[in-house]
């Protein structure tokens, strides 16, 4: 009902505990606040908020067009609807080191448990596309150092993402990961790894938690959680999965309506009215006003 009871500070502690547990953590990507609640209900330990999803939801490509205000606002709306810790994609930090510092404090204020900051140039692009450009090690380290210096809650997780593997290879990715940890990164996100051996190479290079991105249609195969844990991965994200599924269903339903003049053939695939009301906890709002939920839901199967 309304927003989560777990404080941001408690969520950050929970995330730290997960990453130290020795068990890999699965964070599906939420594309709106209600999907975050569904992720929680299905028993996942945390929520990922993708920068690509936030951009795509606005009808924009993932090339750095979103602003700090847009990302912090939407990520905050998602985070406050779940008891789970939320990790958000902060792109390149939205500017120079001073901007990165402000980014961290805005995301803290919005209730996030942590974020990752990458080493691409602006305009950036999706990590699983060709033609990426990365900044030099000194610039990348300055971003992470600014982030670490700016946070007020020491448990706010600062993760460094590096895209250098696609540009200069896995050895360069190992070196970059070590430099980013030295600059203050609490965890490393090595983007677009080719195979499990490359995740293992990053694991061998650093002692902090590492993240695997299991995005569809990308550079990495869709490894199982058991395979990833076997090479030392601590957290796996599924950033765009729910958005892609939802938009695919929406497209099929629109095509059905256009072709047949009714949505009837797609009704069986929908979230029912009763299930939707349950997910938003409709009945609980009677605590404030008994006129809110004083009806029978017509057709519980619908």
How is this structure best summarized?
With 302 residues, the protein is an alpha/beta fold.
Provide a descriptive summary of the structure in words.
- The protein is α/β, with parallel strands linked by helices.
- It is about 40% helix and about 10% strand.
- It is built from 12 helices and 8 strands.
- It has helices spanning about 10-20, 35-40, 50-55, 70-80, 95-110, 135-150, 165-170, 170-185, 195-205, 225-230, 240-260, 275-280; strands at about 25-30, 45-50, 85-90, 115-120, 155-160, 185-190, 210-215, 235-240.
- The strands form 2 sheets. The chain has a 5-stranded parallel beta sheet.
- Helix 8 (about 170-185) packs parallel to helix 9 (about 195-205).
- The radius of gyration is 20 Å and the shape is globular.
């Amino acid at each position: 009902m309304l927003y989560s009871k777990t404080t941001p500070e408690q969520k950050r502690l929970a995330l730290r505990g997960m990453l130290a547990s020795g068990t890999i953590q699965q964070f599906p990507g939420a594309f709106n606040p209600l999907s975050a609640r569904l992720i929680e209900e299905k028993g996942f330990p945390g929520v990922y908020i993708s920068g690509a999803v936030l951009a795509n939801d606005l009808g924009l490509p993932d090339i750095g067009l979103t602003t700090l205000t847009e990302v912090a606002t939407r990520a905050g709306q998602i985070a406050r609807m779940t008891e789970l810790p939320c990790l958000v994609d902060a792109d390149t930090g939205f500017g120079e080191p001073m901007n990165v510092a402000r980014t961290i404090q805005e995301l803290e204020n919005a209730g996030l448990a942590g974020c990752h900051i990458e080493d691409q140039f602006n305009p950036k692009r999706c990590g699983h596309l060709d033609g990426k450009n990365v900044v030099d090690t000194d610039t990348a380290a300055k971003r992470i150092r600014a982030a670490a210096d700016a946070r007020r809650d020491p448990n706010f997780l600062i993760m460094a993402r590096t895209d250098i593997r696609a540009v200069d290879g896995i050895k360069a990715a190992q070196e970059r990961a070590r430099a980013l940890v030295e600059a203050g990164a609490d965890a490393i996100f090595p983007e677009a790894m080719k195979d499990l051996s490359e995740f293992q190479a990053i694991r061998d290079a650093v002692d902090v938690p590492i993240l695997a991105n299991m995005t569809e249609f990308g550079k990495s195969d869709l490894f199982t959680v058991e395979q990833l844990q076997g090479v030392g991965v601590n957290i796996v994200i599924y950033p765009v999965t729910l958005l892609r599924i939802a938009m695919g269903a929406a497209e099929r339903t629109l095509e059905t309506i256009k072709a047949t003049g009714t949505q009837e053939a797609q009704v069986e695939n929908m979230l029912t009215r009763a299930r939707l009301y349950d997910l938003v906890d409709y009945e609980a709002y009677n605590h404030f006003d008994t006129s809110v939920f004083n009806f029978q839901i017509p057709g519980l199967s619908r």
